[in-house]
Structures are given as structure tokens and as C-alpha cells.
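User: Predict the complex.
Assistant: Input components as received:
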Amino acid sequence: MARAPTRIAILAGGSGTRFWPAGRASKPKQLLALDGDDKRPLLRATVDRVKPLSRRPPLIVAPAKFKRALTKLLPELPADAFLWEPEPRNTCAAVALAAHAAQAAGHDGPLVVVPADHHVAPLKDYRAALRSMAERARVFDGIVTLGLEPDHAATGYGYLERGVKLADAAAGPIHSVRRFIEKPSRRRAQGMLKRGGFLWNGGTFAFRPSVFLSQLDQHQADIGWPLARAFQRYGGKAFTAALRRAYDGMPSISIDYAVMEKSRSVEVLASDITWDDLGSWDAVARRRTADEDGNRLRGDVSVIASKDCLVDAESGHVALLGVKGLVVVRRGDTVLVARRGHGEEVRKVVQRLKDEGREDLLR
Amino acid sequence: MARAPTRIAILAGGSGTRFWPAGRASKPKQLLALDGDDKRPLLRATVDRVKPLSRRPPLIVAPAKFKRALTKLLPELPADAFLWEPEPRNTCAAVALAAHAAQAAGHDGPLVVVPADHHVAPLKDYRAALRSMAERARVFDGIVTLGLEPDHAATGYGYLERGVKLADAAAGPIHSVRRFIEKPSRRRAQGMLKRGGFLWNGGTFAFRPSVFLSQLDQHQADIGWPLARAFQRYGGKAFTAALRRAYDGMPSISIDYAVMEKSRSVEVLASDITWDDLGSWDAVARRRTADEDGNRLRGDVSVIASKDCLVDAESGHVALLGVKGLVVVRRGDTVLVARRGHGEEVRKVVQRLKDEGREDLLR
């Protein structure tokens, strides 16, 4: 019997809240070009990146409202590569949707689930890591997750503590997982870095669909079962409506909470690739090439006596004079002027605008 | 014989270089609303301010290229109130033009010449000062200038040192002038403030046209004579062309250099009104009312955790997040983000754009 091939699923949900005004309701993070000097939208780059890993097109799990934008962005993919979520329901539902779709298509080889909006480098090592995860998932009746060796005491990432070493894969050692740790305080992050044995949680998984769906039944049946019922209609006209009904009553919960933290069958591949979840303008700034004054400029920008600024202007002209450490983002008629290091708080601006009924600035 | 009435002339030349991007080639400073919370363009406010001082309309000396904008701004003024300069030639030519026009109209009462773009308060005291200057000019065969009692060691203004007291006018004492001092260093400004006897040079003059023109003949005949010849055509069709010929060969020089510093017939009225030449965005910021966080906001602005910022946005939305002490000015497609205290350097931005051939951003 031939080995079942590997498939890739890409999670392309999420909003662009932290990237306002570039990110908006109509322009979520995965449609923005935020990875270093790469001008491609993140999702486009991700699809290109995983292409060598599978002969089958990747499954794209994405909000139905972006159907037009995404099919335009990824014209080479067949219609059945897209899994349109009627409503956002966080990552557990999205991963489950991919697992069901793979299974419904008769696939029970390894499914590797990757986020659409992260930075990884070098490419070769990243692909090797995904390959090692897939190979492990082929023989392991559980979920293999990607852990990144931390190189600083990041407070913006989740962590996991590795347990005993179980195997040496081509791309790194595979360990059991002792526990998951949510975004830590600065102090705790420094402690973990010093002590060692902790990895960043890369939000990337490999499993056989049947294995994952059985774990889901065990830990979060209110997602597994409604989807199973909807997939009885898969491939038919009634599927869209069936999926909407399934989503209607489903909880919105992350895969970490729903499955990973509860399951006893989780392993981690420890990788030393460079990884960044590009969680804010601050992260984006770090990845772009700086000029000699530490400025990262995109668009029509004049700079006088200014340092360490990120400017991202899609239109118009931005002039900086005597300023340091600012993030200036311009989209359409809107300009954000923020201090670097306040990237997380861009959400507050968006919340304020929502509270003030300024939908015109958020669409 | 009835007393010759007072006339007012307003100098409305100058560029908006320091107020880019609000100030541009097509929008000089006197057409901008820069005086505190007043929404009127500076020239409009100045015309309104001097109205009670004279029954005759004020003479407006302004660049010919702004004919359309200015006649629209000041619809109540008759055509002969405007003196259109074919080219900018600094203040000496502008004052001389006003003096010639007044004389040609048969006027030899006091002419009070005021800039179009300063802040003065309170209004009542300002008008009283101009009245006292005019009354002094009625009997004094020289030039009366306005001196302001300094309340801080300003480095952005010219100064003059007063000499002996000659009279007590209604609005303040009148002194002889010992010398004029250009914009000083911080140290020198502090020395003058401490020592006393120094006044800010308010760029405001009163004289009888015949007296001024005789001084001009003495000190700067290459401005006085060509204008005298042009004014032989005054009131006729050929005047515009004659004025252009006169301006062609005329030096571009300030009235301070050309006449005031050389003349032995200069007196100063020492006034304690509040005065500001609104020389930069920093000055503009000081005059606008601040909210409780020290922000001065004009336009559609969101502010989160930000202090002491000036925002002036004619269109679009500006969001501030975690920033302090910035000047953010938006006009059309252009945004300036500058640190407060760098107002003088806005010129550098404009110069850079000129050097780069970016006329599109300067028109």
C-alpha cells in the first residue's frame, strides 16, 4: 500500500485589529504585507512557502466574507481548497474544519496545520521542521506541535514546557509536553529563559485527521459533532447551509484551550528556526530592513533628523521632522501616529473608535 | 483746516514655508487660521481688527498672484484698496508702495502699517497703541515703531534698545531708539531681559507718507525713485506695467535694514500688550487652547495616552497613541509629523522637497 501523502491546511482567519489602520474589517492581517521587506500579503507568502511540501493544494480555512479577496489572491487554487467559515469561531473550529474536510476527501495521511500570518526563516529549515512533524504524525496517535527555542524573554507569546525526549527527528528533537503556559509576565519569561526547557508555542500542528477528530470528540464534542453532521452534506449544495447551522451553536475557543492543554497525546518538535508571530507593528518594524538612521520606510516619505521610526504609507506623503521611535501608518484617509512599544494598544484605538460609532474608520 | 485722518496699511506678503504642509505656495501664512482658536485666516482677522481705526478702507499690500483669493477673502474692500506686488521684494518695497499709494491718493495724515499675520491681545489696548502711534506721527517728522515689553527671553524676535523717554502717549511711553538688534542667542536674550530697556520689534510703523518717502530717498533711493516714477501712472491702465518695471530692478530688503537702522528719526512706543509673530507651529500651539492633557486638536482626531500634541488636520482622521510633544499637520494628501520645538526646521523639510523636485507637495 502506498503511503498516504501529506496535506497542508492554512488557518487564514483572524482580524487586523492590531494593524489598524492598515488592518480593518475589510483587510485582515493575512491580507497585509507585514513580513519584512516582502511585498506579498502574508497569506500569499504562506501558500508559496508550503507549496513544496505537498502535491495536493493546501486547504485554506478562511472567513466566508473574504471569498472574493482570497480567490483573487490565490487564483491557482481550486474551489474545493477553500473552507469558508460562516462566522469566526477561533482556532479549534478552524482546525476541526480542516481535519473534517481532509477526512471527507478520503485523506488520512498527515495533515499539517499552519497559521497564515507568521514570519519564519530560513525557509529550508522551516520546511524541514514541517516535514519532520508530518513524519512523526504518521506513526504517532496524537498531535505534534511546533516549539521554537526562545532567543529572548518574549512576553507576547505562549510557551510550553517540554518533557522527556522521545525521538530525534531530522529537523530537531521530539519531546513530550509537560504543560502549556499563557503569555507570561516579563519576570516569568526571564525565569523560563534562564531555566531552559521552555519553548515558544508556534501554533502549528501535525496529526492524522482521524486521530485529531477522536481527540476532539473526547475534549470538545460540541465542535466535533456538529461539524461531523455538516460534513454528511460535504460536496453537495446543502453543505454551506449545514455548515452555517453547525457554526451557529459552536463555542468560540482556541485549539490550545480546547484540545492541546487537555490531551495526553501531544508531542513537540523543538526547532531553532527564527520565528515571529508578527503580533503588532513593533514586531513588523523589527523584521523590516532599517536604513542607517534605524528608519524603516515604506511609501512616499521625507525624513529630517529622525530615527528609529517605522512608516508605512500606502498613499500620500509623510514627512518626519526631529522625531524618534514612532510608528506612522497611513491608509486611505487615516493616519496613526504611535510610539513604538505601544503596538499592543492599537486595539485600544480601535475599541475607542467602535465605542464612538466610527464604523467609517474601521471598515 | 480739518485734521487729516489716519489710514491703515496691511502688509500681506510672505510665504507659508514654516507652516508646511498647511502653508504652501498657493496658501501663504496670511491665508491660514493660525491665531489661537480663531477660525479666520490671519489677514481676515487683521482687517477686522483695524477697522475701527479709520473710516477709509485699509490698503492691502499683497502678491499679485493671490488677487483672486484675497478679493474673495475681503469682498467688502474696493479695488483700489489692494496694492498688488508683481514680485516679492521684502518689507521695504511693500511699505514704500503703501506710502506712495496713500500720497498719490492725496493723503498725508498718519499711515499706520501693520503686518497681516501676528497675534495681539487685548484688542482694545492694541488699538489704543496704534492710535497713540498715529497721533505721534502726526507731529513727529520721522517713523514711530511699535516696541513690545518682553515677558520672556525670546530668541525668535528682533529687539530694539530704547533711549530717552520723549513723551507719554495714552497707550504708553514714547522713547528714542538707541539701536536695533537681530534675533539674539539664548544667552544674549536672557541678558537683555535681565538688564531691561529692550523691547521686541513689532514690525509695525506709523508715519506721514511724505516723511517716510523722504527718509527712503535718503537711505534707499533705488526703491523710492523707481516707485515714484511708476506712481506717475497711478490710477491709469499703464500702472500695472509701470509697477512691474519698477519692481524688476528693485532690491529685496527689509525695512529694518533699509531704513530703520539707518534713520536718526525713529521713535518707539513701548507697549505691554501680548504680542506674538506666530513664527512657527510651536508659536501657534502656544496660542491654542489646550485640553486637560495639553493637547490642541483641530480636525477629526482620536487620542489615546498622548500629551502636549498639536494636531491640525483639515481632512481625514488622525489617531495618536502613546505620543508626547508632537506637531501633526495634515493638508490634502500630506502629513507632517514633527517634534515640538522644531518649528523653525519645517523650512528644512520644504527645502529638501524643493531640492528633490517635489513641486507637487509644495504647490
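The first strand of chain B starts at residue 7 and ends at 11.
Let me know if you want any component modeled separately.
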